[in-house]
Amino acid sequence: MSQQQFNQSLVDFLSESPTPFHAVQSMVYRLSDAGFQVLEEGDSWNVEAGGRYYVVRNGSSIIAWTMPQTSALESGFRMVGAHTDSPCLKVKPTPEMHKNGYFQLGVEVYGGVLLNPWFDRDLSIAGRVSYRNDEGELADALVDFSKAVAIIPSLAIHLDREANKDRTINAQTYLPPILGQSEEKPDFRALLKTQLEKQGVHDVAQVFDYELCFYDTQKPGFVGLNDEFVASARLDNLLSCFIGLNALLTSDTSQGALLVCNDHEEVGSMSAAGAQGPMLKQVLERVMPDAEERNRALSRSFMISADNAHGVHPNFADKHDGNHGPVINQGAVIKVNANQRYATNSETSTLYRHLAELEEVPVQSFVVRSDMGCGSTIGPIAAAEIGVRTLDIGVPQFAMHSIRELAGSADAYNLSKVLSRFFITERV
Fold first, then answer.
1. What family, per the record (predicted)?
2. What is the pLDDT of residues 249-259, one digit of tens each?
3. Total structural domains in the chain?
4. 8-state DSSP, 98
5. What is the residue-wise DSSP string for 261-324?
């Protein structure tokens, strides 16, 4: 696959994935087309050497893997981890608001959202709806309004002359999007029922609850005189999900290869579907039931936690350590933190540098300024939960946690090449 083909597939995936539920659905389609077999958590599993499988939890987290042709005890697993969620505005359970003739929805801030860019954007709504069907059974369906149905207008500069100097955002009062005008407060659940019917779900008797978020309807695209950049919502961290998925799909079954994409990373990962939950550990226990053999296999395993990094912004270069300012399109970034906010150590970073050298792609490193706090990833969590050697790496980007982010059009492709080699490497 060429870089151009890779990037086109990437923007297609981003367009299909406005929520973690849709992202997992998109991954399931691609895995199924490649011959991966779905396993249900409530069923008995019978995995075979050379088999290709996936399992979904909560509709928003997924683990896909290939069983090695040889014993998993001998080869262990090469694992890549990412997360499916992104900071956003989520619709509250009783969201309807009617003020001055405008219909609005109350929202809750999910994760560390950069709020200013959400104003004056064409917004839509997507997510999962839970309902009772005509037969009295409980069911779920994905919903996506697709078109722009809402907006959060800015307050005019004439009414706030200090806006460009100091405008803080009150999440409770400033953020409810406007969906239209009406004489009375509409029933949002009735609107969801209508939308599901438009999408072909005709058995909805009553909508009970939902997990919905607003998203920007502007499509992903390329920016720059020479298309140097990819611009899109949710690059953090659907970009890494796609990179890992592409690498897994192009791998063989000579070694055990596994991709885990967890939900809820942006809010701490502590959930049944999050990295701090038991999902990965439970899958490994079912794939390798004998504890002695599993622990020996894990000693031969390796995890690459892929989560985007902060590229050095030319207008704010002082926010970076002078020796550790990653530049976009100059390679994926090895993330290091002495206080274990990242799981990288010298052994794990050396393996990545070796693989990158074999693929002839550049590598950078990132350490946060010593006078600033450091974020984290699923890497330290996975390392602590299953005791596996782990590397934290990521594609450098701008505007992390904004409604529209920016990454390099070469970096994702190059990282995918290294991960593809990683999945088939005999010794790690």
1. Belongs to the peptidase M18 family.
2. 998 878 899 99
3. 2
4. E
5. EES-GGGTS-STTSTTSSHHHHHHHHHS--HHHHHHHHHT-EEEEE--EEPPPTT-GGGS-TT-
